[in-house]
Each structure stands twice: as C-alpha cells, then as structure tokens.
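Fold this: Phosphate propanoyltransferase
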Amino acid sequence: MSKIDEHELIAKVTERVIAALKQRQPFDGLIPVGISVRHVHITPADLEQLYGPGAQLTKLRDLRQPGEFAANQTVTLIGPRMRPIENVRILGPARSHTQVEISRTDAIVLGLNPPVRPSGKIAGTPGITLVGPAGVVTLKEGVICANRHIHLNEADAARFGVKPDQEVEVEVEGDKALIFEHVQIRVGPKFVLEMHLDTDDANAAGINCGAKAWLRKR
C-alpha cells in the first residue's frame, strides 16, 4: 500500500470516528421534552392551492428531528363553529396527505371532536377548511390530536429497553408533576431522542420545551 493510500485510509477512518463521536451523548436516562403546538402537514398540491401555482415550502427554522422544519408559510383553520384560528404553522417537508394536528382546547374552539391518533392515521377523522393567501382547501378528513410519543434511534431504544410502538409511562417533575400514560415509542434510524407533548399536556404539567422526563414503567 502506498503512502498516499495509507493517508487516504487514515483520513476516512478518522472522519467516520469523529462523526460517530458527535452522535454519542452521555446516557443519563433523561428524555428531553418538546412541546408541539398546533400545526399542519401538507401535500404539494394543497400547498399550491393555498399559496398559488409553483408554491414550495421555505424554511423558517429547523426542528429537532433531522430533515424536519417549520416553514414560513401559515394557514387559517376554520371549523364548524366558524371561529378561525389564524397563523397556524406548516411543517415541512411536504407529505403525501394533508394533516392538521391540534390540541383538545383548539378542537373546542373549532367545534371539532378529533380522535387521539399517531401521525398519519387520519382515516375516519374530522375534516376542516384551510385558508391561505391564494385559495382555500377543504379536507374531508385529516384532523387529529396527536398521541404522546417518544422519538428514539435504535441505540436509544436498546439503552432504554423499549421496542417500536410499545406504550410506556413517562414521569415529569415540577409543581404540577404528572405521570403520562400511553406514550408511544417511535424508533427510526435518524430520530433524535425527544418526547412530544401537545400544549394541553404541557400546560397540565406546568412544563416548557427543554424539560426532562424519564420512563417510569417499561
């Protein structure tokens, strides 16, 4: 092997080691909490209907999960009570189905009764009207209250001793300490460890983004 080949090999190995070290975090058993406010996932076709031909999502800021972002685009939600909720953020990237995730409090304002579902499970859910600067989209279904869930990669799942779609109990401390039940485990190769609660759950526990939680029962 030539010196050049050795140097190239060392460089590649070093690069991989550094990348692996950056992904490692000290394991203390704590789970960061992210609070998910009302938002919309949207198809390219529905985005064009709301924002005009050729419209594409533009990034406002990255979210914790790799590849996901809060878009600059927002919509107004209108339900049966005709009381609009304005400036509801669209999250990217675009999806194959348009979906609206709201809290139970939002549902009361809108006059809806959506079920608690994992993201993407929209069959049989209520519809809603979305209003954008260029048009209107009326969904026959697609409104859910997102279930409580934890994102983990395979290594995290192994360390916590949990499996995909398992339900666990999670405890948070504070003046309004709570134990959350029926928290779904979601495992994916690119997931970053984080528990997602909606605003109603977070307010009930008196916590903000960045709070810590831990598994109470596996």
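The two ends are 52 Å apart (CA to CA). The helical segments are 3-23, 44-51, 104-110, 154-160, 199-205.
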